[in-house]
Amino acid sequence: MADTRDLGRELRRFGKFLRSEARPRGKLLTPFNVISIPVILLGIGILVVRFTKGLGSVTNLSQEFPWGFWIGFDVVTGVAFAGGAYAITFAVYVMKLEKYHPIVRPAVLSGLLAYVFYAGALVLDLGRPWHIINPIIGNSFGYNSVLFLVSWHFMLYMLAELVEFSPVIAEWAGWRRLRRILGALTVGTVIFGVTLSSLHQSGLGALFLMAKSKIHPLWYSEFIPIFFLVSSIFAGLSMIIVEGTISHRVFKDQIDPAKHHSFEDIILGLGKGAAISLFVYYFFKLLTFIHDRHWKLLTDGWGIWYLVEILGFVLLPCVLFAYGVRNRSVGTVRVAAVMALVGIVLNRLNTSVIAYNWTAAVRYFPSWQEIVVTLMVIFTEIWVFRWIVLRMPVLREAHELPTRRTTAGNPVPSAIA
Questions:
Q1: By residue range, what is the domain housing residue 332?
Q2: Per-residue pLDDT tens for 198-245?
């Protein structure tokens, strides 16, 4: 009975704690809020129309182009941006590179939110969205389907990232005992998560192996799963550089001032990793291009567009990363990171949308509603990220758990702590 009373008291305390944490913090009329709130509200209205009247009411999808901007950007590109989580956790917990430990939590949070929102955007693109549960409940299992494997990997990896991030939630809530238990699961969860992530990053590329006749030869290769895996590494590292730079300016009050200088060293280290993975990616692309003898394909508009992607947003950022790291130019590394992210967007959209069904008489172009909904997804993710960072120990080093609080201000023992 005593345990039951303690648990009830803890639940009431946590309920009051959540209500206090739910209160807005900071200014409401900021430039980001003024831009994002109308877009989010408009996007919600569009989704109401989409789920009541079908995909055709708000998208330009067709039988020839069943996959559009929501798949090409939200899922295929967005999942690549989330690659930094598995790269950083592997470096810190498996390779023991403690230098990068300060960015583990924001990287895991970014990866978790990316999968929740971008992989969750799959629901928007399904003609019958209620069928998304089929691979999980065993209805019409497609055991030989790559998409079946990707869906399971997505689900399991989101659970793995939630476990990786759960010590932060326990620290925020003040659950000491649970924090210790969850912390003990970290290394095993990281190894499991890295395995899953490498499988589904390459699995996304494997989806396009069945579309050889539909994808332009410059973007199709039997090694496309390897391309997707390698590109997710430098895409994730570049996203951490860009996102970390913004976070260190927006949330500077959350960070120990002594840590600001060390973050520049971290950026240079990430730039070195991005340079190496970019070079490996470029070298693989060059080898397959020479092996497949695609020289004649460079003489038309598609060839020029391919060179823009490969030379302008793969080779050039690779050189900039190397130059920035060698000369300790943090600004150059940041510019290279932005260019690398643009290159990933181009490559994934070229593979899944732009160069897909490239011989079709009528080309696909996303409707304005599709673009607004994508912006809504991005803005909502940023809102959630900001809410969590302002309340939980993500950027600040808050491993000292908070004291129990009550409305009277006296510490209270916890059934969980």
A1: 68-370+383-391
A2: 888 999 999 999 899 999 999 999 999 999 999 999 999 999 999 999
